[in-house]
Every structure is written in C-alpha cells, then in structure tokens.
Amino acid sequence: MAKSKSSSKKATKQPIYSIDKKAENFLFKYLNNASPTGFEAEGQKIWLDYIKPYIDKYEVDYYGTTYGIINPDAKFKVVIEAHADEISWFVSYIGEDGLINVIRNGGSDHMIAPSKRVNLHTKNGIVKGIFGWPAIHLRDASKDTAPSVKNITIDVGAANKKEVEDMGIHVGTVITYEDELMILNNKFYTGRALDNRMGGFMIAQVARLLSENKDKLPFALYIVNSVQEEIGLRGAQMVVERIKPNLAIITDVCHDTTTPMIDKKVSGDFKCGNGPVITYGPAVHNILREQILDTAEKNEIAFQRDAASRSTGTDTDAFAYGNAGVPSALISLALKYMHTTVETVAKSDVEAVISLIYETLKNINPKTSYKYL
C-alpha cells in the first residue's frame, strides 16, 4: 500500500504485452471465482490449470500456496509473486430470528456492506444472502447510525436459527460478495478481489510470455501465488522458507490517490493509467530496484515512484526478511476503491506491469552481486 510521497516517469512506447482474448477469458474465470483467505483452493486450481502449459513443474504447500517452476534444476532461484486471497467475512453468530452476525476475514469494509448480495460457502454449495439495512424512511437522520460490524446482519430468508442451520450454515461459514468483474469504458477492469488476484493474472502472463517466446533463463523461475496475505503475509512467510530464493519480485496493488477524500500529501500521488508503481523502502533491495527502474527506462515503460516509511505492507516484507534475507523488490498496480466490490485498475497498467516484469527477468544475471557493500 502507498505510504507517502511519490513521483512519476512519463513514457510513450507501448508495452510489449497486450491482453488478448485468451488471457481475458482466464482473467474473468479467475476473478469471478471466490478465493477467500484460508479457502483459496478453487481459485488456485483455476490458476494452476492455466499456467501448467508454460511451466516445467509445480508444487503446492500445506496451506495452499501454489507455484510453477521454469528451469527447476538451476541453482539460482528467482521468485515472481502475487497473493491469491481476497477479503471476506465469517459467520460469528446466528440469532434465533434467523439473522446472521459476522466478523472480518481480512480487511473487509463494514461501511459498504449494507444492501450487498453475498454468497455463503457451505458443504452443500452456495447459499444466497443479503446484508440488510433499515429503510431511510424509518431512520432518524439526526441520529443516523453508521454501519459497523456490531450492527450489520445477513438475511438468508430464514425464519429462525434452525432453518439457517438446515441450509448448512454454521459459525465459521465463510462469506464473499457476489459482484463479478466488468470492463469500464473499455479502459478499466472493475470488480471485487482485484487485490490481488490481478497480480496472479499478471505473473501467469509472464510465464506465458516466456514460454511462447521460447526465452531461456539462466536461473530457476518460481511463479508463486501465495495464500493468506490479507491476514498478515502468512503464505509468503511459509513459502520463502520452502523455496529459499536468491531474488524476489513481488507484485501487489497500491492506492490510486485521485480517489475522492484521499490526501496525496499523506498517501502519495498515484493514478491509474500512469504506469507501474515502484517502491523505495527498507525492505526493497536497492540494486534490484535500480535494475527494475533501468529496465523501465530502457523499454520506455512509464512508471510511478512510491516511498514506504517502514514496511511496504505487502508480501515483499515477508520475502525480504525471510530465509536470512532475500533481495526483494515491489512493483505495484495503482487501484481505485481498495477493499470494496468495485476495485478498479487500468488495463494499460496491467499490460505495463507484465511487460516490466518480463523484461526485468530477461536482464537478471545470476552472477550479479546483490551484496550491500
């Protein structure tokens, strides 16, 4: 997430990658499938099925982090990574009146919940529900109560607690919003869970490019789709110890700060359509970041700069400080309306991030020293 001031670098050259129909079909299938934190399996299956033709082997860890490997026998290991999970809700209480109370699974926003349609994921399949809210006519405007986790409830059309339970719903049932991906003005992708399954889409396209262009890399490339980022980078913490990489390039989202009510002096200056956001910060390795910046300038890919005062708030931190330290860098995608059902990114930025990661990988030399001094 964007932490402070930023600057941008303009360019005019078109990225070498363009989203085609095959990629977009995968994107819609992948994004429209639910992948809540801790329950990412179905989304991981879709993602893995897509990348299988472009990789040499794959592995899945105990909690579901999934990764494909290109050139697996090479000693030098490079990771490109995104996280696969989306924010959601858990059933925390079922009232005798059949209404359901919830708690967060990740950073779900209680303010947007009222009037949203939801899917409750049970062993018997999906049960439809809604976040209800009292009509405006019946509320005292002078004492209007804002939505909170304490007062939002889900209605599944049940008359009582037993009827809810007979549907297969219980405490711990996970809940996701129903909203699906759409295209806005032929320039933007909009929907739930673009944070950060758009990253999973982008690294999958990098794998596809490398395969279709028959690029030979002098290192092993791990294309990693991590779980449980939304509750503390947990999947990345586990998989960095499993892979023990030599380098890691992470992709995630940051805020488009042209969004109303955001202070650019506090949150930085980023805009959808202005290119990838490249982060400076303690967890970001200076040499690797400069390689990425040089690659962007060489290929005339427009980019924006971010400065993170402490942590980046992304899986970059888990990789950077895992396995006794891994040189890591962060390439972000500017996104509007984070943690809502209308998260929005520019198609041109998605293409540019894919291009930038792809071109950077082609320039990585395992003999380069990433030592600090």
Describe this structure in words.
- The chain is α+β, with helices and mostly antiparallel strands.
- The chain folds into 2 domains: 7-86 and 192-363, Zn peptidases (Aminopeptidase), CATH 3.40.630; 88-177, Elongation Factor Tu (Ef-tu), domain 3 (Beta Barrel), CATH 2.40.30.
- Helix content is 26%, strand content 26%.
- The protein is built from 9 helices and 18 strands.
- It has helices at residues 21-32, 41-51, 161-166, 194-212, 234-243, 264-267, 286-298, 315-320, 347-363, and strands at residues 7-9, 57-60, 66-70, 77-83, 88-94, 100-105, 117-122, 125-132, 153-155, 174-177, 182-184, 188-191, 220-226, 247-255, 277-280, 303-307, 328-335, 343-346.
- The strands form 3 sheets. It has a 9-stranded mixed sheet with strand order 1-16-15-17-14-4-13-3-2, with helices on both faces.
- A hairpin with a 5-residue loop joins strand 2 (57-60) and strand 3 (66-70).
- Helix 1 (21-32) packs antiparallel against helix 4.
- The radius of gyration is 21 Å and the shape is globular.
- Mean pLDDT is 95; it is low at 1-5.
What order do the helices and strands follow?
Answer: EHHEEEEEEEEHEEEHEHEHEHEHEEH
Radius of gyration: 21 Å
* Poorly predicted runs: 1-5
Distance between the termini: 29 Å
Instruction: Assign an overall shape.
Output: globular
For the largest sheet, list the strands in their spatial order. Answer: 1-16-15-17-14-4-13-3-2
Task: Round the mean pLDDT to the nearest integer and report it.
Answer: 95
Helix content: 25-40%
The CATH homologous superfamily of the largest domain is termed: Zn peptidases
Secondary structural class: alpha+beta
